[in-house]
Amino acid sequence: MGFGLVCAVAAAVGQVARAHEGTAVNAPKGAVGPSGGTKLDLPDRPTVPVTLTVYEDPRSPQSREFAQRYAGTFARLLASGQLQINHHLVTQSDKQYGGSGAAEAAAAAACAQDQGRLAPFMEQIWQHQPAPAHDALKDRKLLSGLAKKAGKINHDTFELCVDRNERKGWVAESQSAFAAAGLGEVPVVRINGRPLPVPTAQLTPGKLTSLVNAEARRVAAAAAP
Predict the structure, then answer these.
(1) SS3 28
(2) Interval 159-218: pLDDT, tens
């Protein structure tokens, strides 16, 4: 077999492998979810009394504004030991604007999660989020640069994960689950699996803190003998 034919066969095998990775539902390291179901949430902390699930879209300006507005509140609540935050990445903005930027960014974020660097990577997404109509987040060179800015990410491992589309199928499953749940527009926040008693648009950092504290007391009272 000639060298050129060997290279062609190898390239074809590589394309088939990447296509399979793009559809296989492989959850990133540390993902959590219901027993027997796909693990679609990415936690910031181990199990504590209150779990806040935040549905967010990397391409959505509304998700960016929410994440940046509540960053300080989330940090304080995480430090209190009462709260863990599960991040549920969705990609509905790709349907809204066209293109694939949300899916590419969410898959890259899941690759960062494999190294325990989801939060720093998403901080870079929010800080450098392009206008959604431009679909610039589909550019893997941009995502690679954001991974470098996030720091403490093994770049070769990250690049391999992204290049092989290792988290693309998982991202598609995450979006499908969100759409099937009929939760509306992002950002969406749920507390211990339940909708908040106020719409996200009417939420404030102070109100969220009060809700978390109240839920922690409720859980503690329920667990008391």
Answers:
(1) coil
(2) 999 999 999 999 999 999 999 999 999 999 999 999 999 999 999 999 999 999 999 999
Residue 108 has φ and ψ, to the nearest 5°, of -65, -40
φ, ψ at 194 (rounded to 5°): -110, 150
Q: Looking at 28-167, list the stretches that DSSP marks H as alpha helix, in order from N- to C-terminal side.
A: 61-80, 92-97, 101-113, 118-127, 140-150, 155-163
CB of 174 closer than 8 Å to CB of 106? yes
Angle at 178 between CA 120 and CA 146, to 5 degrees: 20
Round to whole Å and give the CA distance between 207 and 126: 23
Q: Which residues contact 91 (CB under 8 A, 6 or more apart)?
A: 57, 58, 59, 102, 103, 106, 171, 172, 174, 175
Q: Is the peptide bond before 199 cis (omega within 30 degrees of 0)?
A: no
pTM of the predicted structure, to 2 decimals: 0.85
For helices 61-80 and 205-223, what crossing angle results, to 10°?
Answer: 50
Residues 6+ apart with CB under 8 A from 186: 55, 56, 57, 60, 62, 63, 90, 92
Question: Do you know the residue count of the chain?
Answer: 225
Three-state secondary structure call for residue 197: coil
φ, ψ for residue 90, nearest 5 deg: -125, 170
Compute CA distances 197 → 78, 189, 201, 212, whole Å: 21, 10, 12, 12
The token pair at 39 is: 């693990």
Residues of the chain scoring pLDDT < 50: 3, 5-10, 13, 17, 20
CA 131 centroid distance within chain: 19
